[in-house]
Write a structure and sequence with these properties.
Blueprint: E1 20-26, E2 36-43, E3 51-55, E4 64-68, E5 71-75, H1 77-86, E6 93-96, H2 98-101, H3 107-122, E7 126-132, H4 138-154, H5 163-176, H6 200-214, H7 224-231, H8 242-246, E8 255-258, E9 261-264, H9 265-277, H10 280-283, H11 289-305, H12 314-320, H13 331-334, H14 356-369, H15 380-386, H16 413-424, E10 439-442, E11 448-451, H17 476-487, H18 490-493, E12 501-502
Parallel strand pairs: 2-4, 3-6, 3-7, 7-8
Antiparallel strand pairs: 1-2, 1-6, 4-5, 8-9, 10-11, 11-12
Helix pairs in contact: 3-7, 4-6, 4-9, 5-9, 7-11
Pfam families: HET
Protein name: Heterokaryon incompatibility domain-containing protein
InterPro entries: HET (IPR010730), HetReg/Transcr_Mod (IPR052895)
């Protein structure tokens, strides 16, 4: 046991050179021993085997510590739990964790390492997903995942034809053979809250526990999209039936850890696929919204890994993950850059020494001026989004943001509706449904110069009809609001006139 006062000198980072990363060589120890290790500076081009940790930071208070090279490095409670769980009793373990392997107080190093983060996870030997300490319900969640895994191995290709058939086969076995199954116990720890197996009731309890597991903060964290896309390997159809069943894009090396429990992340995705396809009346458990986030996460990983990434654009991906959390709003761009084709755009490279407002300006200019930056027929969608009311968490308007730049931190359901309107109904004019055609040049002081064209002038507007709307039809006010959402000029909704220069 190491004396806590013996290594009280704070750790001082040594600067990295281009292409280098730090790896934490975690020394072996028992459960309650002080965490100790050393840093190994290596080239990312030829790194030794290591595991990358994907986790939620949780409480940002640095209340715990790890002794690195005989110096004290403060860490969060969440990271301490992950390191203790992954530490070996007998052997040194090589790990990468952003909070310690990046000098978080050096903004230049942080930006440089964030640019490399996709490659850091891609070149790792495996990814360890840390969900946090376990609760009593977790044993049932891991039991049901293990139980479903066993059934998948027992089924042959002739027994199933697709996801729906697999879910029903699982349900049939649960219902018809309760006496052949032992009491539900997690294989990791031997724990479980059920004294005996009771068919559908046991399955229901297990599925409810899985739903609770998916409600953990980890699954609402934005950075995990990149970490799982980069760190997991796409399963091919010739290596087993799993890909035929639920099209799981994750291999078995990416593992979930929750206290003493552990299982392949693919097993969680399999159970969610089964859960979603079971008839609602069988389990008497409503579909948990938290599961939708995991389903969407799975779909994003599959899309990026299956070769369809060239059809995925930054703005559309930002809408897909708008409800996921990140501590720094600038990371809404930086966490997605390597997967959405903007990693070569210098103005959008990670830079934590510039304001969020500047990042949003750069992003808006990129979307407005780059051909193919979005899948819309017109860049006018960016200006339309800028016209949507932008309020921060305190309810105040963000006055520092130019009126032509959307607040990408606060993409709401209202702005999502606007976004969809431009997908299905391209912005048009009296000249037809031609794309909005304009050139954009930027000047200083946050002013965007717009060069457009005038098609015609409106001479008069017909008065509204005095006839009552037929029963059963949509109220006219609702129709008008819907049409206005994509036809009324964005400048008018922002209470503007039509100046030559818009600020």
């Amino acid at each position: 046991m190491v004396d806590m006062d013996e290594h009280s000198t704070p750790y001082t980072y040594t600067p990295l050179t281009k292409g280098e990363i730090r790896l934490l060589a975690l020394s072996p120890g028992d459960e309650h021993d002080q965490l100790q290790g050393s840093f190994k500076v290596v080239s990312l081009e030829r790194p030794p085997p290591y595991r990358a940790i994907s986790y939620a930071w949780g409480d940002a208070v640095l209340s715990r510590k790890v002794i690195v090279d005989e110096r004290q490095l403060n860490i969060t409670l969440s990271l301490e739990g992950a390191l203790r769980r992954l530490r070996s009793k007998n052997d040194e373990v090589i790990l990468w964790a952003d909070a310690v392997c990046i000098n978080q107080s050096d903004l230049n190093e942080k930006a440089s390492q964030v640019m490399m983060m996709f490659s850091i996870f891609a070149k790792s030997q495996s990814v360890a997903v840390w969900l946090g300490p376990m609760t009593p319900d977790d044993a049932d969640a891991f039991w049901i995942m293990q139980h479903f895994d066993s059934m998948l191995r027992e089924l042959s290709d002739d027994d199933i034809e697709g996801p729906q058939e697999t879910a029903l086969a699982f349900l049939d076995r649960a219902h018809t053979s309760p006496g052949n199954c032992r009491a539900p116990r997690c294989r990791c720890c031997g724990c479980g809250q059920q004294s005996s197996y009771n068919g559908l009731e046991s399955i229901r309890i297990g599925m409810e526990a899985v739903a609770q597991l998916m409600s953990r903060p980890y699954f609402s964290r934005l950075w995990i999209v990149q970490e799982l896309v980069a760190g997991t390997r796409l399963l091919r159809t010739n290596i087993g039936q799993r890909i035929k069943v639920f099209h799981v894009p994750m291999d078995m090396t990416t593992r979930l850890y929750c206290g003493s429990h552990h299982i392949a992340l693919a097993s969680l995705i399999d159970v969610i696929g089964c859960y979603k396809r079971l008839p609602a009346f069988t389990l008497r458990t409503p579909w948990n919204p938290a599961a939708d986030r995991v389903v969407q996460l799975n779909q994003l990983v599959l899309t990026f890994q299956s070769g369809d990434a060239h059809d995925v654009h930054l703005l559309e991906t930002m809408f897909a993950v708008k409800d996921m959390a990140c501590a720094d709003p600038r990371d809404r761009v930086y966490a997605l850059r390597a997967m959405t084709g903007i990693d070569k755009i210098a103005s959008l490279n990670p830079a934590y020494n510039i304001s969020t407002t500047v990042v949003w300006e750069h992003l808006a200019i990129y979307l407005l001026t780059t051909s193919g930056a979005t899948h819309f027929l017109s860049p006018a969608v960016v200006l339309a989004l800028a016209g949507v009311s932008r309020e921060n968490s305190l309810g105040g308007i963000r006055h520092s943001l130019p009126t032509w730049a959307p607040d990408f931190e606060c993409l709401s359901h209202h702005s999502d509706f606007k976004h969809l309107a431009y997908v299905f109904i391209p912005p048009g004019s009296a000249g037809g449904f031609e794309p909005f055609d304009a050139m954009y040049n930027t000047t200083s002081n946050g002013i965007l110069q717009v060069c457009g064209r005038i098609i015609d002038r409106i001479i008069s507007v017909l008065p509204g009809s005095s006839l009552a709307a037929p029963e059963g039809h949509m109220e006219m006010s609702s129709v008008e609001q819907w049409i206005a959402s994509f036809l009324i000029p964005w400048s008018e909704r922002a209470d503007w006139t039509m100046p030559t220069q818009m600020n």
